[in-house]
Structure formats: structure tokens, C-alpha cells
Amino acid sequence: MKVDIALIHYPVLNRNGETIISAVTNLDIHDIARACCTYGVGNYFIVTPSKEQQSLVKELISHWTSGPGGLTNPDRKAALQLVKLADSLRDVRLQLGDPAVYATTATYTSNCLEWLELRKKIEIGEEDNILLVFGTASGLAKSVLMESNRTLCPISGPTSYNHLSVRSAVAIGLDRLLGNWRI
Amino acid sequence: MKVDIALIHYPVLNRNGETIISAVTNLDIHDIARACCTYGVGNYFIVTPSKEQQSLVKELISHWTSGPGGLTNPDRKAALQLVKLADSLRDVRLQLGDPAVYATTATYTSNCLEWLELRKKIEIGEEDNILLVFGTASGLAKSVLMESNRTLCPISGPTSYNHLSVRSAVAIGLDRLLGNWRI
User: What is the per-residue pLDDT across B23-80, written as a single tens digit (0 to 9) for each?
Assistant: First the structure.
């Protein structure tokens, strides 16, 4: 079983619903890499077409994977080694060899798949090569949802508040799919 | 049913197992407040005995709750309104009126309680006033565990890596207890 993650910085939406390119943030890299390492995710793709942003990410990662950061904190090195770069979702798909692509959203759609249904599919081996796609800013542009095989239902609790950070959403999503809990 | 959260900055451990006071970080406030708002948590206590740190937190919160931040981003205002300050865990307990205190740790202990067992207790009404206690830095000092009624089992996935950020751990813990998933 193989689960990978893509964090999309373009195309994503701003609060007005316009398509933008968002900036990569340091803590998205660290927090999500640590969650990926915890849940056995194979690759964590930072997706941005900006060469400047890619270059910044490379510099940051190398501090931890081959520079002084990894010497003082080997646990962080293990996590940051999962981080890869990609220009686009299409690029990620090509690198991974046609995974089943599951997009995420904070808005309900009638045909969304419940996370625990996907957990079951993984457990019975019905899905064995999955790419989970998360959006930064105010979420994935419609074209990304169109390019995905399926959209997962929004993560929520007992309230209608749907403004989790993407870092929290990734952590919760991975735990719903791969956490060490049993009923 | 009432669930509150305390994020402890003293006493916590550093990587060498020494007791320290950690600095409050901006993103711990925001990410965890947003998760609390999502899952219907009543209060999110930032626990530090440092008056300077408390004053910094107050300034930051007021930017979002009564200042310009809340005008441009009312969703963030709703989340940040849950943030409270406390000098110590004892102070939190006094403010809440003797809640059942559940500490969290990344290390297994033989008598830890599984998160889904606590979810069941909440569902059947066996627990109705819960305080979840999370540690910053390398986790809660032993005295905090001793002061708690019970320790919850570590959150993990299929690997032995146990270095989630506290932001991720809170998000996952709340989803395990209060998430909108059903088997």
C-alpha cells in the first residue's frame, strides 16, 4: 500500500474565489512532513510552478537533510527527506505512475467519499496507490478537483466552522486513513 | 458535554529530559484555536507562568478579537476568542471547576487510555467535563502527568516515528474524540 501527498500552491483560490499562486510556508513543510513520516507516507510533494519558490524549498530542505539541521535533529531529517518538488499536479501524477487521485475540500459535494470508506478500501486492498491532494490558501481550484478521481468529504466536528489549517487537515486526514486506532 | 484544552509551556521537557519553560509560538495559538473552533472546544488555555509571554499573547489575541484582524477575517476572530491565559495547570483546573484531566504523551505507558475509549465515554455521557492537556517542546513534565487523572495513549500510525507537531497532535486528538465520522 502506497499513499503520497501533494500540497498545491497553484492553482488555488483566494478568499474572493479568484485563482492565485500561494507562497510556500516553512511550517507547512515541517508539520506536514512530520505527519507524513508518522503515517508512513511515501512522498510529500510541494507543488508550485514558481522556480524561485522551488529554489527556496530546496535550500530549506537541504539544511535538514544534508546540512547542519539534520545533525542536531535526525528526527527532522527523516521527515524532511520525504519532501519532493513538482511543477504541477500533472507532474506529480507522472512521477508517481498514475495513482488514484483524491482531492480534499472544506465544502460538501453530493458525491464526496467519506474518509472511513477510503480507509476500508485501503484495508481490503481495493486501493493500493493513492495520492491525497490538499490546497493552500482558500482551497483547491475547480480544475484540480476536475483532474482528480474523487473528492473526499470535508473534515469536520460537531460545529459548522470549516476553517482548519491545511496542516491540521492533513494530520487528521492521515489519521482517519492510517491511524493506529481500532474500533 | 464540555471539552477544554490546555497547552502547557511550563513545566515541559527539552530534548535532554530537563524541565524548561518554552516560548509561546504564534502558530500554536492560531492552528489550535481553529481546531478548537471546528470541534466545539469551549476554552483553549495557553499555560505559562511568564508574565511577559502572557502579555504578548494578550496583544496578539486582541488584534484578532477586538482589533483590525477580526474585521478582515471574522472566522479567525471566532477561533481566537476561545483563547484564554493561565499561570499553571492548577489555575486552569480552578477556572474550569474540577474537570477530568487527560494528559497526552508520545511515549507508551502500560495504563494509558485509548482515544476511542474516551470517545465512547463522551458518547454515553460517562465523561462530560474533560480537560485535554498537551505539552510543547519535548512534552509534558512528569509532574503534569502525576497531576492528571489519566494519560491518553500516544497518537501514532503504522510507523514508530513519534514526532508529530503539537498542532497536529491536538487536531488528530480532537478528531478522534469529536470528529464527524461514524463507523
Answer: 999 999 999 999 999 999 999 999 999 999 999 999 999 999 999 999 999 999 999 9
Q: Residue B154: which domain range?
A: 2-24+39-50+82-178
CB B30 within 8 A of CB B76: yes
SS3 A76: helix
**For residue B118, is it within any domain?**
yes
Answer yes or no: do B163 and A114 touch at CB < 8 A: no
Q: For residue B64, give the nearest of B97, B90, B30 by alpha carbon.
A: B30
Nearest Cα residue in chain B from A174: B157
| Closest CB from B165, B174, B181 relative to A176 | B181
| Complex-level ipTM beyond the 0.85 threshold | yes
- pLDDT tens per residue, range A167-176: 999 999 999 9
Contact residues, A window 136-165, toward B, CB-based 8 Å cutoff: 155-159, 161-165
Q: Do A76 and B163 touch (CB under 8 A)?
A: yes
Task: Judge whether B116 is closer than 8 Å to chain A, CB to CB.
Answer: yes
Q: Classify residue B65: in a domain, yes or no.
A: no
The burial class, CB within 10 Å (0-12 / 13-18 / 19+), for B155 is: buried
Q: pTM above the 0.90 mark?
A: yes
Asked, for residue A183, whether it belongs to a domain, the answer is no
pLDDT tens-digit series, residues A68-104: 999 999 999 999 999 999 999 999 999 999 999 999 9
Measured between beta carbons, the chain B residues lying within 8 angstroms of A27 are 27
Q: Is the pLDDT of residue B94 over 80?
A: yes
Query: Among candidates B138, B128, B80, B54, which has minimal Cα distance to B104?
Result: B138
Mean pLDDT along residues A142-166 = 97
Q: A85 - beta bridge partners?
A: A46
| Partners of residue A40 in chain B, C-beta under 8 Å | 157-159
